[in-house]
Amino acid sequence: MRDRERPPGKDRFAPKSGPRKGRGFEPRGKRGGDRPPRGSGDTVVLYGWHSVTEALKNPKRKIRRLLATENAARRLTEEGFDKPEPDVVRPFEIDRMLSPDAVHNGLLAEAAPLPEPELDELPEDSLVLILDQITDPHNVGAVLRSAAAFGVAAIVTTARHSPEATGVLAKAASGALEHVPIVLVQNLSRGMDELRDAGFLLVGLDSEGPADLEATTLRLPLALVLGAEGKGLRQLTRQTCDVLARIDLPGEIKSLNVSNACAVSLYAARRALAAK
Fold first, then answer.
1. Which stretch is the leader sequence (predicted)?
2. How far is C-alpha 68 from the chain's CA centre?
């Protein structure tokens, strides 16, 4: 994705007239907009302390504009974040750029997207996640956070039927977006075939899988495949997996939110791989 320079003299965050439409923000009428901010393809919106500060620490992330309240700007200085220098604004100036329930902690950044690796660039001994049409940005953000915690090399998903890596997703990821790259493919089953050709074992998580994940023989490189909540894995995705496995749950409820299932699966996989 190309990084386009902002025309000279243009100020997207003019405090007297409110945020300008486009390039990352959608106005919400008198208060700002009814929808969370979305990137425009060449712009990523980050808000919240962890999301923004992890981006500031990431040398691969280009920050185009940084907004901070007085308290947040002071905290940035105290914690050694001296570049770029933020534009100090009042809290309501950030509030009106976001949905009413967004918690921004006094920080908002406009940034360039991170580089998107190709499938053939993934490490030969890596653990990756494949997401089959998981569209809820809160769930994908939570999956990213677990992925970062368990050393996942990348998340593979389709260019369509997936949320943008901006706004709500970035906030839910709590900084993990800076540590786990997202690989976008046009066709998931073909992407899975490409990973198999590269030596990956494709394990689909399915509540009706024939074997418990803990009892499944796992090896690196490994790809765990997760389906959308409620729908699960699509038929072609199931057929493309090498193995289908389930998470055995001893309680009365036999299913988990997809982000929780992801965390449990990663824990079980890492334990199994470490035992070899």
1. none
2. 23
